[in-house]
Amino acid sequence: QLRAQNQVLKKGVVDEQANSASLKEQVKMKDQSLRKLQQEMDSLTFRNQQLAKRVELLQDELALSEARGKKNKKSAESSSQLSQEQKSVFNEDLQKKIEENERLHILFFEADEQHKRLEAELRTRLEVLETDAAQHQAVVDSLTRKYTDTIEKLQNDKAKLEIKSQTLEREAKDCRLRTEECQRQLKNLQSALGSRLEESLCIINEKVPFNDTRSNQYNALNVPLHNRRYQLKLRDLAGQALAFVQELVTALLNFHTYTEQKVQIFPIDSATDTISPLNQKFSQYLHENASYVRPLEEGMLHLFESITEDTVTVLETAVKLKAFSENLASYLCFLRKILPYQLKSLEEECESSLCTAALRARNMELHRDMKRLTAVFEKLHTYVSLLALPSTKPEGLLRTNYNFVFTNIATSLHGFHDILKDISKHYSQKAALEQDLPTATQKLITTNDCILSSVVALTNGVGKIASFFSNNLDHFTTSLSYGPKAGTEFISPLSAECMLQYKKKAVAYMKSLKKPCADSVPYEEALANRRVLLSSTESREGLAQQVQQSLEKIAKLEQEKEHWMLEAQLAKIKLEKENQKLKNSLSGHLTETIQERSVLPNVAEQKKEMTEKSLREPIKSTSLAPDVESREDLIKNHYMARIAELTSHLQLADSKSVHFHAECRALAKRLSLAEKSKESLTEELKLASQNISRLQASKDELMTTKRSYEDQLSMMSDHLCSMNETLTKQREEIDTLKMTSKGNSKKNKNR
């Protein structure tokens, strides 16, 4: 394909070059015709100039003849006749020349314009053709380069593949020989293992009196393998589910409570007028919501407490799930009881005079959403009651249907989340429309906001539950359906309860076998504690000295703090008196009042207030106050801040120096102890090296005999494993090479 495109491009370039050459020839021809026309124009202008001169001469002669005609009338008459005839002849000749000159001028102008136009068109076309030719040439050059590179790469790849195929053929031959040897060894091993299997079966038949795994009824009483990771994961998931259910319960309580408040104030406020009997009954039922919603949280809490690390948690043993299902059924009965009243309340609100068309549409949308909400709760209750069946009636739900029930619960939760999204959207629109009503009160607006916030919280909680359940769906289906070894399921809840009792007995027996060890400290830990104890005695004395010094410093600083606080309070009182005097003396001239600072009630907080004001607040001064006082205040505040900063730095430096001194003393003590322990350890090391050299000789003798037996066994097993691995690898490489060689051959044929 690329070669065909290359030939087409070459033909196009050749055609464009021929067109450009023909256009150049046409341009040359037009230049020649233009030069001819210019020469004709020059000759015509020269002829016109000659005719103009001749006309001037004739006019001069006419003037002379008229002057002579006055002198001689007779001769004038004859000459006038001749001059008139000549004039007529000259005028006709002149008129013809003028017309011919005009016609030539027009022809020349038209030819010049046509030539310019044609020249511009030809130049633009020539430029376009030159650019196209350059682009085509660049494309052709790049394609030729690309083709040469690909051809070289393909040739190199072909050579490499040929070499690799030859080497692989050699290796394949070697592998065939090895496989034959491995097959022989495998036959020998199979015969040996078969004989050993027969011996072991005979022993089992003779020694094992009863195999309880053959019967499902007996196997259900066996304790399954304890999967602690699954139990911890299930407890973690149950804790997360409990938190989500608690959020859901609080959101439902808020929603029902604020709905009751809304019924009491809209469309008729119960404080000013009596509401309808329907709304009274509806609010009475809504007031009982806590007795139906709270048991959901309690049932989930009991289910979470029943899942521990030591138990085996499956649906047959999850007895508390039945209680949660009953609590959910009671809440569903509550929803069914309030649904007709809720729908009638919305219809009554639509019939009121305050309800607009848009508000009526929103109410009808909420009317449909409430029906969908009750239907979703019915669906969830159905599936949860199915999950509770294995703990009471195992024949009601087979283990093969667990996955189906869990997936339906996940889809129902996602549908529940979508319905709550619609309710949140429709109720927000309804609240905005009710806020625009002329009779809308602040109580109605706040109640609508509370209901909307509870619906949003309910939506977020259900969304979390749906995502949590769908993310952990695989874990639920696998961990809640395992049972005894070689068994498919528990036969009944009674067998599951017996299995749990056997598990408790087995755990108690295993604990009784473990004898408590005597309370003693390991040798390494005792040595480490001794070193720490010796090093800490010195550091304890240093710390006691540091504490004593710091207490003395604190007492001095407290005394200085009280002294300077009193000084600052006195200075403030003096400042207030001076300001009062200045205010009284300049009361007629001052235009702005001096803002005074209030005296703080607590002396402890006064110093902090002074430092904060000196650092953060600008200095307040009146228009008549001198610059000297403001400058002094600035300097004072700056130095106060600087003193506070330097004192903090000094305290940090003192604490660091004391800490470093204590660390140095402790390190010196540890160093001396380490030197002593080093000397003792060198002596022990010498004795240990002598013992090691003695034991090494005996160890070498034992190891040589042991290795000789182990090597003979390991060589056979390693050799078999390596041969199987090499065979599989070689077969895979041969298959891949065949596929690559076929693909390369197809590509080469296509090219």
Automatic annotation (TrEMBL):
Boundaries of every Protein phosphatase 1 regulatory subunit 21 N-terminal domain copy: 1-94
Keyword Protein transport attributed: no
UniProt keyword annotations, A-Z: Coiled coil, Endosome, RNA-binding
Molecular function via GO: RNA binding
Signal peptide: none
Pfam short name (any one): KLRAQ
Stretch list, region Disordered: 67-86
Name of this chain's protein: Protein phosphatase 1 regulatory subunit 21
Organism name: Alca torda (Razorbill)
